[in-house]
Fold this protein.
Amino acid sequence: MGTRKGNPRSSPFAERVYAIVRRIPPGRVTTYGRIARAAGLASSARLVGWLLHEAPPDIAAVAHRVVNRNGELTGGWAWGHPSVMRALLEDEGVTFIDEYRVDLERHLWDPEDELFDTL
């Protein structure tokens, strides 16, 4: 078993991930992969998920806005059951196309769009 050096939550990548997650507007969602790409490591969607699972409280409070590439509520168990994550999103006006799948066509927020808008 390998050992980890340092705290991955304080790495430059983690700080970029957390900065992106803080900017997800209420009523919108984004994906682990889009966050990874915008943070500079396109193939690190799973690492984004791990970072969100271990996130500081201010990030955990908005992490329900992150879904998988199909719009599915894969992070729901962080709140006990995916229905809790769904309720948080519905409270923000997010609609669903089935029980635990967000309507991405209507609610997707791409962090890279925002980055380009500010250039």
